[in-house]
Each structure stands twice: as C-alpha cells, then as structure tokens.
Amino acid sequence: MALVRQTKKKWTDFLTCRQVLNIMVILGFMFNYMLRVNLTIAIVDMVESNTTNNTSTNSTKSRIDETRFNWNPEQYNAVLGSFFWGYVLTELPGGRMAEIVGARKIFGGGMLMASILTILTPAAAYLNYYVILILRAVLGFFLGATWPAIQPMAAKWIPPMERSKFIANMMASSLGAAITMPVCGYLISTVGWASVFYVTGVIGIVWSILWFCLIYDSPAEHPRISEEEREDIEAKIADGEGGKNSKPSYVPWKRIFLSLPVWAIIITHGCSVFGYFTVVNQLPTYMKNVLHFNIKKNGLLSSLPYLAKYIMAIIASYFADRLRKSGKLSTTATRKVFTTFAIMIPGCLMAVQAIWGMDATLSVAVFTISLFFNGAVTAGYLANALDIAPNFSGTIFGLANTLSSFGGWLSTKIVAVLTAEESTFATWKYVFWILVFTYVFGALFYLLFGSGKLQKWNNPDEAYGQDGKELQPLKSKPEIEKEREINNIA
Asked: In the structure, what pLDDT confidence band is assigned to residue 467 with cuts at 50, 70 and 90?
C-alpha cells in the first residue's frame, strides 16, 4: 500500500499551477471573443432576406427552416451595437474590482454570466426585438469587466521579466475569432442559427466551472500548489519589484490621471484599437463595395488577420522578455521599441493602401500584414501597466480599454459619414489616411511619454523611494539557491 501511495502521481507533477493558469487564460480569451462575435456571424441567417434576385432566392431555399426576423437595417445594426452599451460601462470598474476582490471572481464570474446569457439569446430574439437588445447590452456589461481583470492576476502570479509572454495570452481572442467563424458557419448550415448560441454558451459554462475549480488569485491562496513553486513565484516577484508590496488602502486617482506614462498607455491603446476595429470591421465592406470581392465568402482570408496577429503576439512577447531578462534592453527601451514596431509599421502600410489600394490581392496582403505587426503590442504598451504600477494595472487597463471601446464605435461612424454618398476608392482614401495619422500619432506619443519605470504612487501608503526604478531582471536559479542556503545557515 505504501508503495502504491508513493508511486501515485498528482496532476501537479505534470503541470505546474502557473502552466494551468496560462492554459486557462488562453482558452478563456478564446471563448471570451467567441461569446462576443457569435452574433455577428449568426445574425446574417437570423434576418429574413428581402432580396428577390435568383442568387438570393436559391440561398434562401437552402437555409435551415427556422424562425427569422424582419429587422430593418437600423434594427440590424442596433442589435450588433448594443453589446458596446454595456461593454463600455464596466471596463474601469472591472479592473478596479479585480484589484480589490481578485481576478478569479471577476473574470470567471463575467464569463459564466455571459455564457448563460448566450444560451438565452435565441429565446430573447423570439420574445421581442427590445429583449435581445437589452440581453446583448447586459452580456457586454459582464464581458467588459473581464479584460482588465487579467492584469491584476498577472501581478500576483507572473514574475516581472516574464509578463510579456503572459499578456500575449490575451491575444488568444484573435485565435478564438479565427476558429469561431468557420465553426459557427458550419453550425448554421447544418443545424441552424440558434445552435450557434447553444454550443458557444455551453462551452463557456464548462470553461467557467473549470476556472473556479483550478484557478486562484495568488500562489498563497492555491490549495494544490507545491511549496517549491509558490516560493519560487513569490521570490521572483519580490526580487523583481524590489521587495514585497503591501496592498494599497486607496487609489491615488490624482497621480494616476496626472501621470504621462499612464496617458501614454491610454492614448496609444486607443489609437491601436481604433485601427484594429477599422481594419477588421470595414475590410469586408471595402472589398465588396469598391473592389467587388467578397472576402467573407473565403473562410481562410477572413481568418488570416486574426491568425496573423496572434502569431506575432507570441513571437514578440518571447523576444521582449528575453531582451529584458538578459539586460540588453531596459524595460523602457523594450516597451518603446516594440510599441513603435507594432504601430508605426501598420501606419506606413495604410499609406500604401491609400495610394495603391485598388488591387484586391494587395489590399488583403496590406491588411493582413498590418495586423500581423500590430500583434507585437503585447511586448509593448499592453504589458506596460504591470511595469509602472502592478498594484493598479487593472485600473489603468480599464481606463485604456474604455477609450478604445469608444474608438471602435467612432470608426464605424467615420466610415459611415465619409462613404455616405458613394462608396468608392476616392472616398475610402480618406479613411486610410485617417488611419495613417492615428497610428503614427499613437506611436510618437508613446515614444515621447512611455516609460517602464515603477511609479512611486504604486504604493501610496509607503514612503520608500522606488520612483524611477525599473523592474529588475530575474536572478538565475543558482543565485536564488545560494541565497536560500545562506538564509538557512543564518
């Protein structure tokens, strides 16, 4: 019996708790975006077609026999846009609440409630048009809190010099969108549009249950973590941040709002996401109306931008952490280099699009390559809040994401105004030049005001002078073991 007890292995012998956290966060952001974009795919089949040409008639006959809705274009777009009504409201509160009660509850609870609402979506649509509007707004309310919640989680679990790689997990949302599109298309064609919400909702609920079973807010709270792993994580975080930080009793709002490094993150994130939403949301319209090429009919091409961004996010974050850990680049230099790389190149590519964008192949290539390079933001400003103020990283990201959400809405309005009278290359040129200005402005603003230095107001209750110091490179394993031996002897 003793022999059996000795040879029996636990799952922690194969996967560390931090590896499990990484896996769950990757899946979490994949499913997070799945719950967000499922309607944009399903709504095409939910709405009754009023066209009478032969192609549309044949297409309509091939659709699964289920209830459809006679929504006009205004109602159609209102259903799509209602998500943002709730989404904008909880970005900042979600980040702050994650700092207070923990990211486990905010991220997991937000996903669970959004998953339940997703399953109820067909019933809401059948019940009344206004019911589905309210349901989607509430769904956005819950998902809006999830994004800034991960930054406080990283502050507790991930050593400073490894945080770029962890933040890259957020870009799994792009991977989720790339997978969701073809899967939902298959479900619609074989089972019907309602199945999209049932399947994605159940997946979200299963993930949420696993999240609460496997994930905890800090190594100290985890009941199954090994003593060795817990001590290793806590020691590296303490070494990297110059000592253990106590939980602040209040938020230094004035100093946050007067901080140029904070505004560098907020402004640059707003510019970057404005460009991202414009490219992703408007590319199909431009290709169809101007170049007479329906990109949505090509599943590979519609998924390429998402896949490209995720691949670059992983590559860039890996190199950024390597550079910082080796001491070849300071945290400030690393963040500025990768932010400039991720935002300035798309700006230049938009100039190419504005001049030679009449070619469909070139346009697809420009937009795909643009988003590929933009994925490097994970090694730039996206992880920067954890550098300058890990205690308030959720609050800072919440502020940034609130502005970027307005940017996504603003991009649709700008395109609508500029192309209202005619949708031609001549009118779309203005859209591309606006993107050039937005990208370049964001890159330059961060170059001037971005910083990787830990801010003194990160610990407003303490008077120690850490302001201006950067997070330190991690000590090697032999150094840590040597220090432990000395401490044990002492």
From this structure: low
Confidence of residue 76 (pLDDT cuts 50, 70, 90): confident
More confident residue, 309 or 472: 309
For residues 464 and 406, the model is more confident at 406
Q: What are phi and psi of 469, to 5 degrees?
A: -90, 145
With contact defined as beta carbons under 8 Å apart, do 347 and 446 qualify?
no
Q: Decide: residue 226, CB within 10 A, 0-12 exposed, 13-18 middle, 19+ buried.
A: middle
Comparing CA positions, the residue from 162, 73, 67, 159 lying closest to residue 122 is: 67
Contact, 197 vs 122, CB < 8 A?
Answer: yes
pLDDT of residue 217: 94
Q: What is the pTM of this model?
A: 0.82
Nearest CA among 431, 439, 426 for reference residue 412: 431
- Residue carrying the six token digits 């003593």: 227
For residue 395, give the nearest of 94, 89, 87 by alpha carbon: 94
Q: What's the rounded Cα separation, in Å, for the pair 102 and 95?
A: 10
Kindly report the backbone phi and psi dihedral angles of residue 470, in degrees, each rounded to the nearest multiple of 5, phi listed first.
-95, 155
pLDDT band at 417 (very low <50, low <70, confident <90, very high): confident
Locate 387 and state its tokens: 């550098």
Give 61's pLDDT tier (boundaries 50, 70, 90).
very low
And the tokens for 67? Answer: 């209830």
d(CA 39, CA 160): 38
The per-residue pLDDT for 371 is: 87
- Would you call 314 exposed, middle or buried from its count of C-beta atoms within 10 A (0-12, 13-18, 19+)? middle
Question: Using a CB cutoff of 8 Å and minimum separation of 24, what contacts does 285-292 make?
Answer: 285/415, 285/423, 286/363, 286/423, 286/428, 287/360, 287/363, 287/364, 289/419, 289/423, 290/358, 290/423, 290/424, 290/425, 290/428, 291/358, 291/359, 291/360, 291/363
Separation CA 102–CA 221 (nearest Å): 11
